[in-house]
Write a sequence for this structure.
């Protein structure tokens, strides 16, 4: 019995030590379409320029309030789409995003292509010591891709994306073994989640069907036929 | 009895830690803080979006009409095509000195404020099918990903165009990316079971 007590005590101390280690919470946010590109479509996207930003900030606020002290919270935002949407709106959106990050107390990093994003995930921190403990994506997506750019440079298409075949460039070593990952975009649960789990060994929750960012706040599943899956 | 309590207590503490961690994430997802999105500022008169919204639309292009930078002698010929599989490519493009055997199915990158797709002036998106245009611009260094069909297309950056006129459909030209399967789904595509084009109000 003493041996059992000793074992449990060691296990408990080990668990507490592990939970005391700092980890990184990563939130990735894609960009909005241009209204010029979406004008007149039956399914017209991104009437509101900050639909993904607002959802991200709500989530970041919740992470900040629940993450252990010392954890790093990093917000990666795809910049080019916000630059062009700013030009279309006649209102500079970038300082507003910087201000939101400042108010939240999170580290804001802009990225302009998938290579920069991948480089940060792999090399942005010492991944031997600083594992990614949570990962969340807000933005356009289909089942095979995170679409950081969508209908912004080219109507209904993307020039910046993270396809499932790109996942092999991200090291599984970057993630904690119990990392919690979620895509809040459309259709990720239909394919992306499986590739993610296969590549990194950690599950990623994704939607079967569509998600709806149009009402403000965190996105909801679009209808009763949709569901979350891993 | 006392000896039995120690491991039981330790187990209880461990279980509580685990349950707390799980419930924290679940609770986070429940908080959504719904707020109404703000209203966009009024359109600036004369902006590309203003023209798109308020200009009178035509049924078909006007032969001879020019838009953008059309002064150079180095231009392309574009033949507007429609992708019946739902892809969003614009049509075929070839250099003015080539024949259609060298044509490529392209994605058209518009330059709002300079030159935009000819169909933007029409009542329907497909109203210029099989029309041909002289086109000025260049190929981009990157490709466009079409999320409807999970394929990559070369990108032509449009700087100007002149309407030539309507022609017969091009025979023997393949629609879509060169590697598009002609009789089966690519597997990674979203079209097979869950088409991506989304409903009204979906982001």
């Amino acid at each position: 019995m003493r041996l059992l007590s000793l074992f449990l005590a060691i296990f408990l101390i080990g668990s507490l030590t592990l939970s005391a280690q700092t980890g990184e919470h990563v939130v990735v946010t894609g960009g909005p379409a241009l209204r010029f590109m979406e004008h007149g479509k039956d399914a017209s996207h991104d009437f509101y320029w900050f639909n993904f930003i607002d959802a991200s900030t709500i989530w970041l606020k919740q992470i900040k309030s629940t993450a252990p002290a010392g954890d790093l919270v990093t917000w990666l935002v795809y910049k080019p789409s916000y630059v062009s949407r700013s030009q279309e709106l006649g209102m500079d959106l970038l300082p507003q995003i910087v201000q939101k990050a400042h108010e939240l107390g999170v580290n804001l990093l802009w990225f302009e292509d998938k290579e920069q994003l991948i480089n940060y995930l792999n090399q942005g921190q010492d991944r031997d010591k600083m594992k990614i403990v949570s990962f969340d994506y807000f933005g356009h997506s289909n089942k095979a891709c995170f679409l950081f750019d969508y209908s912004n440079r080219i109507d209904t298409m993307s020039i910046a994306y993270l396809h499932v075949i790109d996942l092999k460039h991200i090291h599984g070593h970057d993630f904690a073994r119990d990392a919690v990952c979620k895509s809040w975009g459309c259709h990720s649960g239909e394919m992306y989640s499986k590739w993610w789990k296969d590549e990194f060994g950690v599950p990623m929750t994704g939607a079967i069907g569509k998600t709806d960012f149009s009402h403000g706040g965190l996105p909801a599943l679009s209808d009763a036929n949709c569901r979350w899956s891993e | 009895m006392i000896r039995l309590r120690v491991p039981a207590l330790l187990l209880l503490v461990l279980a509580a830690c685990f349950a707390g961690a799980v419930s924290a994430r679940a609770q986070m997802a429940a908080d959504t803080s719904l707020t109404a999105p703000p209203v966009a500022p009024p359109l600036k008169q004369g902006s590309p979006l203003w023209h798109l919204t308020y200009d009178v639309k035509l049924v078909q292009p006007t032969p001879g009409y020019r838009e953008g930078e059309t002064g150079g002698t180095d231009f392309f010929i574009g033949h507007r095509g429609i992708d019946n599989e739902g892809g969003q490519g614009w049509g075929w493009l070839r250099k003015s000195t080539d024949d259609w055997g060298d044509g490529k199915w392209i994605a058209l990158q518009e330059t709002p404020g300079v030159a935009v797709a000819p169909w933007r002036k029409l009542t329907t998106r497909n109203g210029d099918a099989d029309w041909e245009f002289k086109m000025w611009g260049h190929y981009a260094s990157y490709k466009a990903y079409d999320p409807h069909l999970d394929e990559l297309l070369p990108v032509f950056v449009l700087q100007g165009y002149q309407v030539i006129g309507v022609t017969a459909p091009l025979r023997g030209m393949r629609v879509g990316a060169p590697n598009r399967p002609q009789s089966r789904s690519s597997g990674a595509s979203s079209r097979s079971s869950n088409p991506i084009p989304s409903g009204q109000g979906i982001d």
